[in-house]
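Hi F.,

I've been meaning to write this up properly since the lab meeting, where we talked about keeping a consistent format for the predictions we share between groups. The idea is simple: the sequence comes first, exactly as it goes in, then the structure tokens exactly as they come out, then a line or two of notes. No screenshots and no reformatting. I'm using this chain as the first example so we have something concrete to point to.
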Amino acid sequence: MKEVPIPKISCDFVLHGLKNGKRLDGRKSFDYRDVNVMFVGDSGGCVASIGDTRVLAQVSAELGEPRPGRPTEGVLYVNLELSPMASQGYQIYGMSEQAVELGRLLEHCIKDCRCLDMESLCVISGQKVWQIRLDVNVLNYEGAIMDCVSVAAMTALSHFKRPDITVTGEEVKIHYDDKDPVALSVHHMPLCVTFAIFDHGNFIVVDPSAEEENIMEGLMVVAMNCNNEICTIHMSGSMMLTKDQLLYCTKIAAVKVDELTNVIKKFMQTSKLR
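Output, unedited:
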């Protein structure tokens, strides 16, 4: 992402507000902006928003061959794109360093933490499995991008239903209309909480806005599920936290992940009533 020059007066104004317990939008240090989810299509598509940050996630599935060495497991592909229309700082051509970094973080949260039951996607061992594809597109960037990405991704995976199948010998029949579709088996929901660090770690805020991210000294993303299991911790910037500060942030993240999980469940329940 291209560096956007920030006037010193803007930096001083934000820091002065933090010292007095105030943020630009009136939130407290550990408050989230409004979180919303809108479903797109019948299955596996949604637009998640946290404040003005918006992310589109879409899940699709097709039958294919398993990976070598994992004959009884399905395959999950994760693709994340940062469109130039989301922010003037994103490049037009090729994958930026930030896109690669965020894509790897999302893959680690979803694939490496095994939030999906991959063995349930096996159709014929060693021959046919379901290949699940998760496409994530950032529509608008206004801070805390991984928080919104994780909400969109996990909501889309939880909402998606693949066609039912019938296996006779080595013949597979896909039922598109005559049988009810089958939901993915989601073990847990790893969700990200972003912390922005200011003034040598004296001030830490949750869900930073784009303005706050532009002047922060460091950023930390904690991925966790509602069982208080840490999936990954990612840090960037010039500021490192102490052990006590890190433990404090993980405790805050546990509370926020529980709140985000309840928001997703609320919107999922609403979609079932339609």
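Notes:
Helices lie at 8-19, 97-112, 145-159, 210-215, 243-272.
The two ends are 40 Å apart (CA to CA).

If this format works for you, I'll send the rest the same way.

G.
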